[in-house]
Design a protein that fits this description.
The structure is a single chain. This protein has 186 residues and is an all-alpha fold. Helices cover 62% and strands 0% of the residues. The chain has two domains: 104 residues, no CATH class; 79 residues, no CATH class. It contains seven helices and no strands. The longest helix is centred in the N-terminal third of the chain and has 23 residues. It starts with a helix and ends in a 14-residue tail after the last helix.
Length: 186
């Protein structure tokens, strides 16, 4: 009887051991797979219902690319999530390529948060400031946040790339992008 009860008190169960040893990269992969599943549900079931009848007979729908993104993202996330553990790594410190949650303060979280805030600001300023101004400012500010200080190279490259993308989308694809700020009337 003593051996039987010691077995139950003996060590962590499989479920708690899984939670204890699950690395931060796997938690991120789990969140990413969840996001891809929600995005895929929207792409497969809700986007197609909004199509007009004449577009429902087309071989390629507006939801085709989101479907491809959702499936491929879920596959990549599952590969990371279900990846094979290295044997004997229970008590060892993670190597340089692993995300170490114990040393999370050493990562450049400030830069990542500033880039996320810059992306939100870019999305909010795209219509009022126009594509050319907001995209150029986004590219220059993003490079500055990441540490680039050669503004004499950065600004012309950002302007050329922005104008090139605007020309391709506007003139080649025929999709209207407001190039200038709202008060310029374009």
């Amino acid at each position: 009887m003593t051996g039987h009860s010691a077995h139950w008190r003996g060590g962590p169960t499989t479920k708690t051991k899984l939670v204890d040893t699950m690395a931060l990269d796997r938690w991120i992969a789990l969140i990413f797979v969840t996001f891809c599943c929600v995005y895929g549900y929207a792409a497969f079931f809700t986007m197609d219902q909004l199509l007009p009848p004449f577009m429902q007979r087309n071989p390629v729908w507006p939801s085709t690319f989101p479907k491809i993104l959702a499936v491929s993202g879920a596959i990549v996330g599952l590969i990371v999530l279900l990846g094979v553990e290295k044997s004997g790594t229970d008590d060892k410190e993670p190597n340089a390529t692993d995300i170490n949650y114990r040393r999370l303060s050493e990562y450049k979280i400030g830069q990542a948060l500033m880039l996320l805030a810059l992306m939100v600001a870019y999305a909010l300023m795209l219509r009022p400031a126009g594509f050319l101004v907001s995209t150029t400012v986004f590219l220059v500010a993003g490079n500055a946040i990441l540490g680039e200080r050669k503004f004499h190279i950065m600004i012309p490259v950002a302007v050329i790339a922005t104008v090139f993308v605007w020309y391709l989308v506007q003139e080649v694809l025929g999709i209207f992008l407001r190039p200038y700020p709202f008060f310029m009337g374009a």
